[in-house]
Structures are given as structure tokens and as C-alpha cells.
Amino acid sequence: MKRRFSAPTSVNLELTDLCNVKCRHCYNYWRDDSMGGMSMTPARLDDILERLAQAGVFHVIFTGGEPFATFDLLEHGLLTAQRLGLSVSCNSNLMLATPDRVARLAAAGLDHILTSLPSPDPAMCDRIMNHVGAFEKVMTGIGHTVQGGIRVSVNMVITRANMTQVRQAGEMLAGLGAQRLFVTRSVPPTYSAAEQLDEYVLTPDEQRTVLDDALWVRDQFGLMVGSLVSFPLCFLGDLERYGDFVGRGCPSQAGHRASIGADGTAHVCVHEEESYGNLFEQPLTEIYGGRMSQWHDGSFRYAGCAGCRYSDICESGCSMAALGHYGSHSERDPLFVGPHAFSRHIRVDDDPELLAAMDAGLRFIAPRRLRFRAENGFHLLNVRWGNAFPVEDDVAAFLVKARDSGQSFDLKQFGVERKVLLARLFVKDAVEAPDYQGGISNKARLGVSLNIDALPELVPEGRDGDR
Predict the structure, then answer these.
(1) CA-CA distance, 36 to 16, in Å (whole number)?
(2) SS3 assignment, position 116
(3) What CA–CA distances, in Å, run from 298 to 302, 305, 362, 429?
(4) CA dist 232 → 207, 210, 280 (Å)
(5) Of 3-7, 354-358, 422-426, 455-459, which gets the smallest average pLDDT?
(6) Residue of 162, 173, 187 whose CA lies nearest to 225
């Protein structure tokens, strides 16, 4: 049974709708009508952040528009959010970044920025962003940010124009010191005309080639890879090969994500224009539990996904893609294949070296960074940043006690019957084993990005295609 939360675990918070570029693929439906017409004041930002903290939100992503366009407000928000116990990150095109600004943000506690690079080709980048010189400014901004000690992930929204440029982009970004490359499938903006769909929509074979190119980048240059828009897992098929793109599914349908506009209006997905209330007028928990709940109560799941063992992770892929192509949130994702399509399953908790070490008494600790939120019949455990997932109440109580006492524990103390769970908590980075020297870095890397509570039980080898 799907667990229902009382509030989102992370929130995209728009400081302003002012932006210095006008990207062709931008999800901000208002961009032609009110560009730059709304920015928060420090007082209103403080009010919003206090409301988010009261609702139990763990993580805030400061975004826009372009948040550097209201730089002092961004700096103020970072300091205020952390004072309230919220972790923070930022989305920015980095065109306005300078060494001094990066130093100020690092001093304010910011350690990660997600930026965008539509193309490694300067002319194409400038055309997509509708700004002459955009490429050079973005590249310079990435360099300043990395050199200033802030991690940078780069999002490349994949369209027909840039779908063959992933390898070139990866090599370029690795040279700059970027940490991760997202090859994000394009969701047609709600304002796009039907004749524009071909620009945004790749065929399944073209999309798979993009993913293969991203895996090449990972293997050649060591960049982490992924997508910010989820795929139906049946499209991936071979979940062992494409494990980097399994992730946590759609965070909006999973109940983890909400978006707040600069005027306080509440949305769920950043791609949608529907408003569900205003945070200056209603508590977030009220808005979340009202009409917004249709996003995370299963209403948008495609009927053809019934019975699939991965439905609680996948959530039928991208609901906004279904809406854009077929006119309904509950229609199929255009990349849907069907539950019969799995050739290999994803496994992060079956490493024999780890399991043997656990049996031999490997000691674990619950790090101080863990955060918890009580829900109805379970707890949410936040590993760090926006990475949260449900655990049983008694598991939460055990981990809270271990965290607060600083005492280590082994499998017997945790519960031998929960061996798989402890292995999953380890690869999720929710527990640490300081003395463990095993080589499961790839498992751990995949585990951090997975919704471990929704992973099906291990599927016996040889049962390919199991629902």
C-alpha cells in the first residue's frame, strides 16, 4: 500500500520570475507574459521559509527565473533556511556568477548548484538560450563555481537539436570539474503548439542512444549521470545496465516535491501551470492534502501499469509527458512498453562481500546528519539534502537512538530478520560502516539515488520478464 505523506520533503522555491535568458525548452509557462514582474521581498521569503520548516520540509531548492538576478535575496534565503534547519541547494544558469559571488554563497553554506548547458556547441547553445554569448558565460560561471568549492551538476535537456552531443558535452564538463551530467528527457512546454512536438520528442531508439552515450561519459570521465525527468522503467528494460536512470521515479507523484512561485502560489511539478493554493494564505499541509493530493494518491498512474513490481518506484513515468502527448495525466507515458519488458532487474543489496561482513559482525553507525519526520504509521528518514524515504517507526526509533548516542551497532542488534533492509540503508548512505573496506562503490552510488522502500524483493536469477 502506498504511503501518504503530510507534506512534501523538498520544495522548489522561486525567488523571482526575472531571468536573463529565454530558453526554447523552458517550463516556465508565464515567460512571455510577466517576465520579471514578480520577486519576493526578504520579509515574504522569511515567512515562506518559516512555513516550510513548520510543515517539516527537509530541503529547499532556490530557483527562479534566475536566482542570481536577486543575489542579495538568494544569500539571505540561504542563511535563513539553514537557521531554520532546512538544507539548501540552488538552480542557476551561472551566467551572473563571479568569484566574489561564489565565495559569498559558499560562506552562506551553499555546496551545490544545478545549472544548464543546452549544447556544447556555442552557436547552438546561444540559439537555444536566445542570448548571444550565453555559452561562454555559462562555461565561465561553471569554472568560477567549481573553483570556489561549490559542487556543480549540469542539466542538458535533450531535444532533436542536441541529441547527438552528449559525449562532447560530457568530455567538456569533465574538464571543467563538474560532478554530474543529467541528460534530461524533454517535456513539451504546456504553451507549445502541436507542430512543435517533433522538436522535443525523440523516438525510443533515439532516446536509448542518448542514455548509452551518457553511460559512455560515465565510464570514460567518471561523471555521475542521470535524468531529472523520470523514465518508465519498462522502457529501460535492462535495469542493471541503465541503473543510473532508475532513480526515485517522479518525485511529484511519489509525494516528495512541491513548487512555490515567487508570489506564493503552490504547484507540484515545475512543468505544470495548475495552482493549488497560495502559501501566504494557507498552510502547506492544507494545500498538500487538498487538490494537490491527486498527484500522489495514485490517481495519475496509468492503468496499464497495474501489477508491475516497479510501479511504486516508476509511478508510470512522467505524468506531464502523458498530459502533453495524450491530454491526460493518467494516460501512458509515450515511452511506455509494458510490465513484460524487463530483461534484468536492479539489485543494490546483494553484494556477497557486504553480506558476509554483516554476518561476521560488521559495525555500523547512524550519522549525525540524519533527520526524521513522524508521519501517520511510519517515519520519513532524510539522509541529506532532498534524499528522504519512509521507514517503519521502530526502525526510526532505533536509528535516532544510535545517532544521538553515537554508539555503533551490528546486524544482531538491528535485527537479523532485517538484513536486507540494513544492506539497503548502507548503500543508501543512511548508515555508515567506518571499518568496511569492501568494493561496492557502484552499488552505493546507485543506492543513494533509489527509493529503497519501494524496491521489490530480490527476483531470482532466470526469471527475466517477471512482473
Answers:
(1) 7
(2) strand
(3) 9, 11, 39, 28
(4) 12, 16, 36
(5) 455-459
(6) 173
pTM over 0.70: yes
**CA 186 – CA 204 distance, rounded (Å):** 13
Class in CATH terms, 10-340: alpha beta
Q: Kindly tell me the number of DSSP H helices and DSSP E strands found in the chain.
A: 18, 12
Are residues 287 and 279 in contact, defined by beta-carbon separation less than 8 angstroms?
yes
The rounded distance, in Å, linking the Cα atoms of 213 and 336 is: 21
Cα–chain center distance at 82: 20
Residue whose C-alpha is closest to residue 86's, from 54, 112, 42, 114 = 54
Helix spans in 17-133 (H): 31-34, 42-54, 71-83, 99-107, 122-129
Angle between helices 441-448 and 419-427 (to 10 degrees): 90
In sequence order, what are the residues at sequence separation of 6 or more whose Cβ sits closer than 8 angstroms to the Cβ of residue 41?
A: 73
Q: How far apart are CA 313 and CA 424, in angstroms?
A: 15
Q: How far apart are the first and last CA of the chain?
A: 17
Beta strand spans in 320-418 (E): 371-374, 379-384, 387-391
**CA 186, chain centre distance (Å):** 15
Long-range contacts for 287-293 (Cβ within 8 Å, ≥24 apart)? 287/258, 288/5, 288/6, 288/7, 288/8, 288/55, 288/258, 289/6, 292/258, 292/266, 292/268, 293/4
For 35-57, give one letter per residue: b (16+ CB within 10 A) or e: eeebbbeeebbbebbebbbebbb
> Could you tell me the three cell numbers for 268?
507540484
Longest alpha-carbon distance in the chain? 64
Q: Are 207 and 335 in contact (CB under 8 A)?
A: yes
272 in Cβ contact with 340 (< 8 Å): no
Residue in 155, 150, 70, 167 with CA at minimum distance from that of residue 111: 150
The predicted-structure confidence for 16-56, as pLDDT tens digits, reads as follows 988 777 666 665 544 455 455 789 999 999 999 999 999 99
CA 166, 170, 175: angle at the middle one, nearest 5? 155
Q: Hey, where are the domains in the chain?
A: 10-340, 352-449
